[in-house]
């Protein structure tokens, strides 16, 4: 079967999965591709990886359009995603209302599961946050860093640590079995990221890719987007 290939940030994996059958019924095509740290996905497109569609942060997609790798007129906002805290489903939820609460919670965790701190949106933020809190050196040995948020959350679900915590984008937390969305980051520590979708300049199936963008961003899919962790 012919496929539409995508390169996407991990934040959109649950949403794409939720639209796969609808897209197939509408176009006759399946969806294939890669989900991971947005910086790595952008570099794959630059390196010539075949893709019809990209779903990345607004800033990255604008840059790819400037580089003539994405068609500017095809770009549309999917929604905003917050970076949040996660715990194993069997563990008590944690609530942090202030920066001091967050500092103490991270200090007390014996394992901290996070995505790539150099190439992923949430991971970069977490790295800066640990510096902001003044505990980067203190917790360095307890950081469990994985290529993307989805992998980090699967590893958190399987963790045998006593007091593990995870931090990544809410959509990746919601999409992972065995863990629970525990709460937002407190004021002064929060990050909310707009994700956008666009058709690539070298798309093999530009018409179908545009149809997928319409599905991802359409008003009639607002409830699905909300359920998987996106906000308008």
From TrEMBL:
**Can you name one GO molecular function term for this protein?**
molybdate ion binding
Signal peptide span: none
> Please, one GO biological process term?
molybdate ion transport
Mind telling me which InterPro entries this protein's record contains? ModA/WtpA
Task: Note the superkingdom of the native organism.
Answer: Bacteria
Protein name listed in UniProt = ABC-type molybdate transport system, periplasmic component
